[in-house]
Amino acid sequence: MADNYLERHYLEYERRKEEWLRKKRHQPKLKNKMPRKRTGEGK
Q1: What's the rounded Cα separation, in Å, for the pair 8 and 20?
Q2: Phi/psi of residue 34, nearest 5 degrees
Q3: Higher pLDDT, 42 or 7
Q4: pLDDT value at residue 13
Q5: How far apart are CA 19 and CA 5, in angstroms?
Q6: In sequence order, what are the residues at sequence separation of 6 or more whose Cβ sits closer than 8 angstroms to the Cβ of residue 8?
Q7: Given a cut of 90, is residue 15 above it in pLDDT?
Q8: Does the predicted model carry a pTM greater than 0.90?
Q9: Rounded to an integer, what distance in angstroms lies between the CA atom of residue 19 and that of residue 34?
Q10: What is the DSSP string of 1-43?
Q11: For the segment 20-38, what is each residue's pLDDT rounded down to a tens digit?
């Protein structure tokens, strides 16, 4: 194997990770709202 095998793969990993983080930052946050069960109480 080449001497720079690990370095090259690490640099590719860092590039893919940066692209993923950039995409993740631009996505809207989803709110976790659970629909409440309607009960007959409080009428």
Answers
A1: 19
A2: -90, 130
A3: 7
A4: 94
A5: 22
A6: 2
A7: yes
A8: no
A9: 32
A10: --TTHHHHHHHHHHHHHHHHHHHHHTSPPPP-PPPPPP-STT-
A11: 998 887 777 667 666 666 6
